[in-house]
C-alpha cells in the first residue's frame, strides 16, 4: 500500500471513529491536533471527561491486535499533556483512549489505555 493510500485510509478510520464516539454521546472537540510532542487523532468530551484518542486502522481484524504499543501510547500521552490545558477544564478527568478499526468489524474501543508511569 502506498503512503498516500495509507494516509487516506487512516483519515477515513479517524472519521469513522469520530462518528462512533458521537453515537456514544461524545462531543468531538478537535481532530488531528499536531504538536511538537506528537499528534492526537481525536479529542472528545463527554461530561467531565476529556479523551485524547488514538485511532488505528488496519486492513484485517487480526492485524488490530498489534496496532498499538507502549511507544505509540507514550507519544500520544506527551501530546495530550501538552494539549490538555487547551481542552480540559479544572476538575475534568483526562485520559487516553484507543479505537481500533478494520473493515467488516465493529470498532474496538480501549478506554483509558494509558496509565502514567506505564
UniProtKB/TrEMBL annotation:
Identification of the protein by name: UPF0102 protein NSE01_24690
SUPFAM superfamilies attached to this UniProt entry: Restriction endonuclease-like
Database matches in InterPro entries: Restrct_endonuc-II-like, tRNA_endonuc-like_dom_sf, UPF0102_YraN-like
GO molecular function, a single term: nucleic acid binding
Family label: Belongs to the UPF0102 family.
Domain of life: Bacteria
Gene3D superfamilies per UniProt: 3.40.1350.10
